[in-house]
């Protein structure tokens, strides 16, 4: 459906809707702390230490495992994650607060303390999500992502997004480098139907207008995107992509699988193509976020690392690092195959 004129956000605006913040401001400050000058060949793991492991898992996982009498398979962990994460994006925080107050009163009237505690926990999670996503814009972080993605030597790029979920970053890339095409890959069908399928049509992506050489705003409907429901390990593309990107994928692979996950970023790249990777930052704020939200979102193996650790993994696995640094909640790397 075409985005109506009334719901089109012009340039130079920021504000909130019920579900997200929009930000079409074209001027700095963009939140990118640049560590590109790091001498990667001098870094060692004994200097950096290893990533921090987030190990407070959702009680849903334990319930599932008790019911099924087996460990929750990784693919099922992602099915749970995607549904819970999507429900946060879809929740109206004002409505949720009113509902929670009513529920709390009901539980207190019936002296149901356990129920009341659960309502308070849910409300706290709603408030944290609202602050992180809608106030701070730290999940989609368009300003940080634009700053990380700028200056790539590509025209009408062919983009492969590994573990694409809602596909946000491919859309941001297509806005900055228009006329390209993206393949989003995720093995959870729900990402195709709901996370990407129901991505807000009116969300404005600030990008480049090749006709005028200046900024313009794009929407989901403007992009040429295919969604492929597949395990990334089953892909059989040739070396046909200008950009291969993942966002929040590498930290889910323990060290023995790191060479494999980096190889997926290299395998389908054209000569001179870019592999872009981001992972959540190892910082107090992120640790607290996962303490508060782990029950909702943490179903499997998850590391928090810093940009140097991510860079050293990439360097050791055969990538030259063109850009490295911090955006709001993630580390970001732009690399090329060495
Ligand atoms: C943490 S999410 C990425 C973060 C994302 N930006 C978001 O908004 O959720 C990782 C995604 O990768 C997908 N994924 C993980 N392993 C995969 C695999 N082997 N093949 C395909 N998709 C995979 C999951 O289903 C999930 O949607």
Protein model, in words:
It is a single chain. The protein is an alpha/beta fold and 338 residues long. It folds into two domains: 17-44 and 139-337, 3-Layer(aba) Sandwich (Rossmann fold); 91-135. The protein has eleven helices and 14 strands. The chain has helices spanning 45-48, 59-68, 74-90, 93-109, 113-135, 142-149, 168-176, 189-195, 258-267, 284-297, 307-316, and strands spanning 14-16, 21-23, 33-34, 52-53, 158-162, 181-186, 205-209, 214-218, 224-229, 241-247, 269-280, 303-304, 319-326, 330-337. Strands 3-13-14-11-10-5-6-9 form an eight-stranded mixed β-sheet, with helices on both faces. A hairpin with a 4-residue loop joins β7 (205-209) and β8 (214-218). α3 packs parallel to α8 and α6 (142-149) crosses α7 (168-176). The radius of gyration is 20 Å and the shape is globular. The mean pLDDT is 95. Bound molecules: S-adenosylmethionine. Residues 78, 82, 85, 163, 165-166, 185-188, 191, 231-233, 247-249 line the site of S-adenosylmethionine (SAM). S-adenosylmethionine binds next to α3 and β6.
Describe the secondary-structure layout.
Blueprint: E1 14-16, E2 21-23, E3 33-34, H1 45-48, E4 52-53, H2 59-68, H3 74-90, H4 93-109, H5 113-135, H6 142-149, E5 158-162, H7 168-176, E6 181-186, H8 189-195, E7 205-209, E8 214-218, E9 224-229, E10 241-247, H9 258-267, E11 269-280, H10 284-297, E12 303-304, H11 307-316, E13 319-326, E14 330-337
Parallel strand pairs: 5-6, 5-10, 6-9, 10-11
Antiparallel strand pairs: 1-2, 3-13, 4-12, 7-8, 11-14, 13-14
Helix pairs in contact: 3-8, 4-5, 6-7
Bound molecules: S-adenosylmethionine.
Protein name: Methyltransferase type 11
Keywords: Methyltransferase, Transferase
GO biological process, one term: methylation
């Amino acid at each position: 459906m075409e985005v109506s004129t009334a719901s089109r956000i012009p340039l130079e605006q920021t504000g909130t809707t019920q579900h997200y913040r929009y930000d079409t401001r074209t001027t700095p400050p963009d939140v990118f702390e640049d560590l590109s000058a790091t001498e990667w060949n001098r870094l060692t793991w004994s200097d950096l230490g290893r990533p921090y492991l987030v190990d407070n898992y959702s009680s849903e996982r334990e319930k599932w495992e008790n019911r099924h009498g087996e460990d929750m398979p990784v693919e099922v962990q992602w099915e749970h994650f995607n549904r819970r994460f999507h429900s946060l994006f879809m929740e109206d925080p004002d409505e949720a607060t009113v509902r929670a107050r009513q529920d709390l009163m009901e539980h207190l009237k019936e002296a149901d303390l356990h129920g009341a505690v659960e309502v308070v926990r849910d409300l706290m999670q709603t408030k944290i999500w609202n602050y992180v996503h809608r106030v701070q814009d730290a999940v989609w972080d368009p300003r940080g992502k634009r700053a990380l993605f700028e200056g790539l030597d590509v025209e009408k790029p062919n983009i492969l997004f590994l573990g694409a979920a809602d596909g946000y970053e491919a859309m941001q890339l297509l806005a900055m480098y228009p006329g390209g095409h993206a393949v989003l890959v995720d093995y959870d069908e729900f990402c195709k139907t709901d996370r990407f399928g129901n991505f807000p049509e009116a969300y404005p992506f600030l990008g480049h207008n090749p006709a005028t050489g200046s900024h313009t705003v794009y929407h989901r409907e403007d992009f040429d995107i295919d969604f492929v429901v597949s395990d990334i390990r089953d892909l059989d593309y040739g070396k046909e992509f200008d950009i291969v990107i993942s966002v929040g994928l590498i930290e889910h692979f323990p060290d023995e699988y790191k060479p494999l996950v980096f190889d997926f970023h290299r395998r389908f790249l054209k000569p001179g193509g870019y592999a872009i990777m981001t992972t959540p930052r190892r910082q107090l704020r992120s640790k607290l976020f996962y303490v508060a939200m782990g029950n909702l979102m943490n179903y499997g193996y998850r590391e928090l690392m810093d940009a140097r650790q991510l860079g050293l993994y990439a360097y050791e696995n055969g990538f030259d690092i063109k850009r490295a640094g911090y955006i709001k909640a993630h580390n970001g790397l732009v690399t090329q195959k060495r």
